[in-house]
Design brief:
The model has no long low-confidence stretch (mean pLDDT 96). β5 and β6 form a beta hairpin. With 124 residues, this protein is an all-beta fold.
Length: 124
């Protein structure tokens, strides 16, 4: 089982930027699929971005495309989410997810490993 630890969350004003990190450990190698999801209270967890180990494919939710960029450092088993032009509606708990082998896609049910989450709060 892959162990994931997120960091980098915080509070920022609208229009600002944050970068989230997700460090993976416990696997024999870097997870092939890694992604970001987010959740607000009383709402279902939603897809944000996902990337395969070699960068192809990479997918983004429509709501973040053009503002967020996902990247990986496979040598360090770390996934990043660079968030720019943040909006109050981006406020959520952000979770990192991973699947050791194969492309997991956009469904959270395809990811067996999850981090504990990091809170992002964007004020207007």
């Amino acid at each position: 089982q892959v162990h994931l630890v997120e960091s980098g969350g915080g509070s920022v004003e609208a229009g600002g930027s944050l970068t989230l990190s997700c460090a993976a450990s416990g696997g024999a190698s870097s997870p092939e699929s890694m992604g970001w999801f987010r959740q607000v209270p009383r709402k279902q967890r939603g897809f944000v971005a996902a990337q395969y180990i070699d960068g192809d494919p990479t997918y983004y939710a429509d709501s973040v495309r053009g503002r967020f960029t996902v990247s990986r450092d496979n040598a360090k088993n770390t996934l990043f989410l660079h968030m720019n032009s943040l909006k109050p509606e981006d406020t959520a708990m952000y979770y990192c997810a991973a699947r050791a082998r194969g492309w997991a896609g956009l469904k959270d049910s395809n990811y067996p490993s999850w981090g504990q989450g990091t809170q992002v709060t964007v004020s207007s």
